[in-house]
């Protein structure tokens, strides 16, 4: 079982579960009420993100008048929605539980949390769900076999049973859903009415062992009175972290009533004078919708938590300060809301973050100096923006990105271009919606579109994209008519070479995807002579078996191109070693060449295998490949779990052209730009630097053999034009990175978290003449995408290898161009 908290996967699962639960309720288990030992508390969030306790636990209690032996008994657990293969997991018990006493059973330990359980009376290793499951106290240690409420009700071995969350097996109705920070526990009277919902309530975990030793809950000191700005403090971590606070007052400014992270936002209408301290606070209620309304004046008590999306000790992300296990009273309704912070072009600082070379959490906030500090100083407060321009298109998670700085590195098509590690676009922020989709579906907008009028809501840190505005008021969609680009057709004397990442293309994809990608080749790229393809998967896609061939993938793609009116492309590629090249497990992605045989010839030389290195030979003063296609040094450790470059030798109008297709290792494992470590560590750069070194060495071999060789290096290099990898590839002047020849407002082929950036490149040696380069924007800026990358193309006149022939060809090419202009 994977333990998660407030992840996108969890949100999707929660929505799906809600649909299932709308059906007919399952019958309830009715174990006869126990006269002595009962299950008193269940907690499955131990060690999860946001949890304080490191372990799950089950606590027993005895409401009888004499000691109850537990020798030969067990605690058993069943998932909330058991499948045919689900089994009850067993923890054996021993000893006894005194009258009025407790008995603590420690279960699975997670990677998070900081507080250990009191010394348990029994120990198991069951990793229970934090939100839904069934726990039974059983006379015996053999696993139960029942998987329905009715069958379990008939099993006399069950002494007590609790179904929590959405559990199928339960007594009466299941308990309220617990969470990573809440357990479910019986009241102090330990009532057993055969209705779990009536007997148990959700609240802060209070594990207690037979010696009366406890952790958390009401066993600690009385709540400390605190104002919201005192809780938020002047750094990213609350001075009240993991402490219980009370008399927390504020006005409800927004509510989140769907998903697995429900709750409400409070803002104190009586702020202090310190710009570093936020007056907003999120009150987390788990999967239970809060019984409050916007405008309610609330006084709350709860425990201050710093929520991380993963294990707090090792997280690369920032935290969200929140109030958990909260109780509150509503004093009045319909109160005026505190004025929002209005985002103008100069509101958010241009400098993105402090850079101490480590964790910025202990640093005192400087909201007038750094963008990340500005957002943290307004955490959970309401902000508003007018006529917000979209710089990152709507995605499948119902999010988009806007900018409060419309002139900051503006792209030619309305985005925000990322031009350097120290030039992040600080005005960019994510927008999600608090409005139920039934009331207003989330808008589907492209880069350059606008949310007109006011968009406002609380600000909260999200590991998926940094600080986000959760809109309770969402502006009106304005479509500014962004259109897919089309490049010009190459002239008769020009060779056109394109590169296109087709995003895990395989026969399991829909025909619609093949058709759209084919249309991009024919209509938008104007049928290039050679196309480097990245992310071509094997013939059964992500099915993880021994299949590595991709001929069916490429056949279907080339058929689709013909159907769109394009030429009958041929292809060349080398099947990889199974599961050796990274990417989606089972997919065996690789790079491949398409080429139009009516325009260009491929020089086939045998010998290319997944593990054999291609070499360069010099014959009659010209460079040639020993194998074509051939892989560049595929056994080099630089390519471990990554795609290997594919070199091919082509002939165009009698001139040899070498094309090398690439797909460098991904950025997985890098610290986020918006995380708690600044500057972030880009650990994945190490491998790309090694890959660039190997590739640059191979290009050097080609150009040493023939200094006038036509060399094109293209593909998804997974790195920026200002990165160390590209600096290595262009070192010595052997190659020119063509993206850098464009105006800065055009340097992008990919949009990530609202930053228009470069991952795809075409580099060329000095020999090609009349170079004309174009990034063709058809995907990355659109909510509806065939791939998440934009293709690009270079057109050029290959060198014939000697100055006289090149001069003659230049004259002919000039005539050809003149004829095209006057035709």
Structure notes:
This protein has 823 residues and is α+β, with helices and mostly antiparallel strands. The chain is 13% helix and 30% strand. It has 10 helices and 44 strands. Helix 6 (511-524) packs across helix 7 (551-563). The longest helix is centred in the C-terminal third of the chain and has 21 residues, at 685-705. Residues 1-30 have low confidence and may be disordered.
Q: Any descriptors?
A:
seven-stranded mixed beta sheet, globular, alpha+beta, disordered N terminus, 44 strands, 823 residues, single chain
What structural class do you assign from the helix and strand content? Answer: alpha+beta
Enumerate the spans where pLDDT stays under 50 for 5 or more consecutive residues: 1-30
User: How many strands, what sense, and barrel or not for the largest sheet?
Assistant: 7 strands, mixed
Beginning-to-end CA distance, first to last residue? 68 Å
Helix content: 10-25%
């Amino acid at each position: 079982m994977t333990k998660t908290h407030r992840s996108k996967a969890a949100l999707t699962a929660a929505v799906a579960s809600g649909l299932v639960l709308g059906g007919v309720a399952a019958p309830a288990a009715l174990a006869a009420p126990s006269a002595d030992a009962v299950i008193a508390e269940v907690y499955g969030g131990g060690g999860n993100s946001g949890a304080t306790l490191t372990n799950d636990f089950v606590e027993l209690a005895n409401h009888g008048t004499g000691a109850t032996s537990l020798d030969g008994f067990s605690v058993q657990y069943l998932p909330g929605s058991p499948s045919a293969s689900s089994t009850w997991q067993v923890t054996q018990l021993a000893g006894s539980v005194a009258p009025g006493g407790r008995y603590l059973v420690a279960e699975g330990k997670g990677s998070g949390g900081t507080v250990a359980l009191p010394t348990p009376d029994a120990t198991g290793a069951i990793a229970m769900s934090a939100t839904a499951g069934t726990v039974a106290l059983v006379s015996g240690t053999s696993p139960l076999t029942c998987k329905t409420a009715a069958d379990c009700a008939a099993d006399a071995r069950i002494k007590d049973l609790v179904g929590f969350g959405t559990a199928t097996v339960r007594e009466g109705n299941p308990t309220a859903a617990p969470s990573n920070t809440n357990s479910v526990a019986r009241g102090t009277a330990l009532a057993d009415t055969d209705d779990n919902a009536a007997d148990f309530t959700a609240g802060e975990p209070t594990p207690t062992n037979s010696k009366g030793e406890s952790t958390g809950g009401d066993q600690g000191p009385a709540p400390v009175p605190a104002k919201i700005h005192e809780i938020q403090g002047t750094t990213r971590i609350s001075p009240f972290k993991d402490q219980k606070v009370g008399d927390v007052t504020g006005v409800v400014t927004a509510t989140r009533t769907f998903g697995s992270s429900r709750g409400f936002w409070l803002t104190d209408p009586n702020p202090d004078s310190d710009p570093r301290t936020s007056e907003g606070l999120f009150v987390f209620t788990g999967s239970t919708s809060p019984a409050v309304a916007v405008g309610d004046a609330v006084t709350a008590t709860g425990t201050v938590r710093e929520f991380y999306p993963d294990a707090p000790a090792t997280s690369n992300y920032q935290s969200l300060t929140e109030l958990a296990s909260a109780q509150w009273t509503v004093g009045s309704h319909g109160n005026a809301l505190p004025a929002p912070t209005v985002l103008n072009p100069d509101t958010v600082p241009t400098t993105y973050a402090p850079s101490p070379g480590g964790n910025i959490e202990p640093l005192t906030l400087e909201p007038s100096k750094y963008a990340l500090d500005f957002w943290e100083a307004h955490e959970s407060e309401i902000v508003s923006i007018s006529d917000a321009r979209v710089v990152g298109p709507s995605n499948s998670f119902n999010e988009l990105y806007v900018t409060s700085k419309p002139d900051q590195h503006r792209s030619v098509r309305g985005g925000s271009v990322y031009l350097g590690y120290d030039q992040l676009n600080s005005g960019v922020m994510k927008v999600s919606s608090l409005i139920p989709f039934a009331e207003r579906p989330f808008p589907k907008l492209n880069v350059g579109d606008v949310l007109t009028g006011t968009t406002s809501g609380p600000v909260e840190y999200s590991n998926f994209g940094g600080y986000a505005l959760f809109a309770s008021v969402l502006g009106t969609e304005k479509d500014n008519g962004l259109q897919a680009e089309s490049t010009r057709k190459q002239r008769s004397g020009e060779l056109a070479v394109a590169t296109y990442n087709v995003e895990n293309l395989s026969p399991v994809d829909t025909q619609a995807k093949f058709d759209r990608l084919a249309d991009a080749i024919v209509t938008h790229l104007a049928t290039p002579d050679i196309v480097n393809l990245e992310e071509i998967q094997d013939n059964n896609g992500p099915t993880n078996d021994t299949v590595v061939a991709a001929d069916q993938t490429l056949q279907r793609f080339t058929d689709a191109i013909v159907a769109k009116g394009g030429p009958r492309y041929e292809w060349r590629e080398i099947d990889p070693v199974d599961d050796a090249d990274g990417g989606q497990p089972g997919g065996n992605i690789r790079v491949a060449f398409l080429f139009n045989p009516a325009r260009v010839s491929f020089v086939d030389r045998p010998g290319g295998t997944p593990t054999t290195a291609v070499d360069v030979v010099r014959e009659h003063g010209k460079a040639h490949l020993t194998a074509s296609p051939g892989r560049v040094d595929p056994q080099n450790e630089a390519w471990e779990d990554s795609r290997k470059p594919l070199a091919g030798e082509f002939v165009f109008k009698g001139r040899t052209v070498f094309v090398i297709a690439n797909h460098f290792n991904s950025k997985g494992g890098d610290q986020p730009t918006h995380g708690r470590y600044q500057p972030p560590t880009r650990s994945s750069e190490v491998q790309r630097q090694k890959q660039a070194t190997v590739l640059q060495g191979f290009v050097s071999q080609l150009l040493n053999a023939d200094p006038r060789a036509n060399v094109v290096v293209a593909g998804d290099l997974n790195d920026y034009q200002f990165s160390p990898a590209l600096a290595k590839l262009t070192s010595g002047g052997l190659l020119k990175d063509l993206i850098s020849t464009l105006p800065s407002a055009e340097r992008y082929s990919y949009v990530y978290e609202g930053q228009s950036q470069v991952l795809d490149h075409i580099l060329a040696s000095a020999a090609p003449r009349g170079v004309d380069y174009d990034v063709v924007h058809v995907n990355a800026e659109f909510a509806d995408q065939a791939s998440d990358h934009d293709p690009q193309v270079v057109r050029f006149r290959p060198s014939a290898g000697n100055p006289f022939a090149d001069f003659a060809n230049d004259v002919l090419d000039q005539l050809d161009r003149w004829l095209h202009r006057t035709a």
